[in-house]
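Technical note accompanying the year-one report. For the benefit of new consortium partners, we illustrate the data format agreed upon in the data management plan: each record pairs a sequence with a structure-token string. No post-processing was applied to the example shown here.
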Amino acid sequence: MTTRPPRRDAVENRAGILSAARSTLANDPYASVDVIARSAGLSRRTLYGHFDDREALIRELISSGAQRFNAIAASVDDPDARLALARLAARLWQEAAHVQVAAALALDEAHVEHTAAALAPLRRTVAALVRRGQEDGSFRTDLASPTLARLIEEMSRTVVSRTDAASTGAANVAVRTVLSIAGLSWREADELLAAHSDIVASAIAQEAIDPETDA
């Protein structure tokens, strides 16, 4: 039996709902399904034709965002584990800052399990970076690699949910925080970022251009 592809209007409606949800939740993290549907220019019934409930919609937002984060993780290929971790943190922050409220929702206790599963490729990348950095002596070795990877993950979660993405230098803070947890001193982080100013430059530039975008 041949399965028909979704109709074009159905695909467009679903994409519109997700886009409206990102925008609406950025302004009000507790926005109802009715508010999201109105923002999308659709009826509540149409929204429920695509998502069973608000939680299903949020889970879809998390999954689609996770795909973008996982793609960023796959794009980082610096041989130096310190540079790779710094670049990964900067690029992830740039992405998360665009949708900070949605990112915070993804990382709250109600959704953290689903988020962890969706971000499995990213988590594997971080774990591999930690092992590589410990093996070459650039990261701290007083903690087992799974523990250190988890600490980096938890600190990143805190930075996303607690830091004002619109504040000056937020990307710089995010990168330095991750490097600090990995074991670099502030002087070592200074030297690394001074020698590779491109790591946070693009993220800082994006903050200045569009600090509150909901793309």
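Partners are asked to follow this layout when depositing records. The chain has a mean pLDDT of 85.
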